[in-house]
Amino acid sequence: MILDLFAGPGGWSRALGILGVRDVGLEWDEWACKTRAAAGQLTIRTDVAMYPTEPFIGRTSGLIASPPCQAWSMAGKRLGLVDQPLVHAAVKDLAAGRDTRERLLAACRDERSLLAAEPMRYLYALNTVSEPEWVAMEEVPDVLPLWKQYAAVLRGWGFSVWCGILNAADFGVPQTRRRAILLASRVRTAQPPTPTYSQVEEPESLFGPGRARWVSMAEALGWGATDRPVPTVCAGGGPGGGPEPFPSGSRKTLSDARERGTWVSQPDGVVLQSRREGAGWAARHGTREDRAATAAPTFTAEAHRWSWSLRSNNQTNATVRPLSEPAGTLFFGHRANECTWVAQPVSAPANDTDAPAVPDRIRITAREAGLLQTFPADYPWQGNKSQQFSQIGNAIPPRLAAHLLAPHLNVHLSLDDFTLAA
Fold it and tell me: Does residue 304 carry a pLDDT above 60?
């Protein structure tokens, strides 16, 4: 079998499905397990740190591990960096067959830090019967020193190992997501996959075909460069559990108003007030009745155009990218990490006081975020929006995972194997 530790909602599993094989995932999170079940993936709901290794000995050809990254990620408090010496100690001890996790865990500032050492417990047990044949692991860039420690141990056990930082955008992911990767094999030389995309389009040369330009958000979502994001309005609150960004009924108004970035005011008035904008909005833009009593002018694409960008979070140093580029790294799971579409006027007529009001921000939907992680549009995310976003942000992009796994499985990965937009 292929054993997938910390399997999450199925990033690795989706890639394996594209390559024609399946894995068995170990995962604790209830909603990630339900997403995996809805996607038809095999899952054991368990705490990876508590589950015994014996059931897998003599049966495992490949081991995959993406330990939880919250303790190390720039989106969190990064206490994993403080705990790093303890994690290195745990890996060293586990590689020698000594289980000192309980003592080391008591000293950790973040109890999740030590989960990055768990793959070594499984690798040590499996190595007693010369398993697995190959290993693939992924984490945030700050974990690279730990992967180098793993690499040294695995080389001592007869593996060929490569570890380093890869940018997901170089492999067709519409997101400049950098990740620390470890690849190891007992039967072939371990090396990183060859990038298939580049930041600037490369022409064909004597050495072969050039690489295409990075996949943009517009391409992945199936939008034009100026298309309007349309918020999904449903019960249950925003990604962080708060109120919806738009009141019920606004989705249809926005949908009717979208025409490749051109906004046409509707006869009954376009009302785009957010619940969070407060009473001041009406003072600035008038009420529905005020606007309905006024003749509704029509603005053409030439008269009033908006371009759209994605803001990666609510913090001052957030990455903001236009639709014509890949997204920055998508972080979710905390209110400060909400991704939003932001509108910027490209052109507008002078003294344009009656133009339809355009909201400052629209939260990204789970479907859109999933597409930017290269999950299919109809992927069956389970749970409320907060739980869905948390799953998406923690998952490895399946398209990157497929490039990492294809050589181990002797499968040729075609650029046509992934359909981004639907």
Answer: no
Give the pLDDT confidence score for residue 80 in this predicted structure: 58
Region of 178 please: left (phi>0), alpha (psi -120 to 50) or beta: beta
Catalytic residue among 33, 69, 108, 339: 69
| Span 184-216, pLDDT tens digits | 999 999 999 999 999 998 887 776 678 999 999
Domains, in order of start, for the chain = 2-211+397-417 (3.40.50.150), 219-372 (no CATH)
Own/partner long-range contacts of 164-170 (Cβ < 8 Å, ≥24 apart): 164/192, 165/141, 166/192, 166/193, 166/400, 168/397, 168/399, 168/400, 169/197, 169/199, 169/214, 169/215, 169/326, 170/195, 170/196, 170/197, 170/198, 170/214
Amino acid at 84: Q
Q: Judge if pTM exceeds 0.85.
A: no
Active site annotation includes 163? no
Judge whether 365 and 377 are in contact, CB under 8 Å: no
- C-beta atoms surrounding 333 within 10 Å: 20
Mean pLDDT over the full length of the chain: 79
Here the contacts of 333-336 (C-beta below 8 Å, separation 24 or greater) are 333/70, 333/75, 333/386, 333/389, 333/390, 333/393, 333/394, 334/75, 334/76, 334/240, 335/239, 335/240, 335/242
DSSP element (H, E) containing 65: strand 62-65
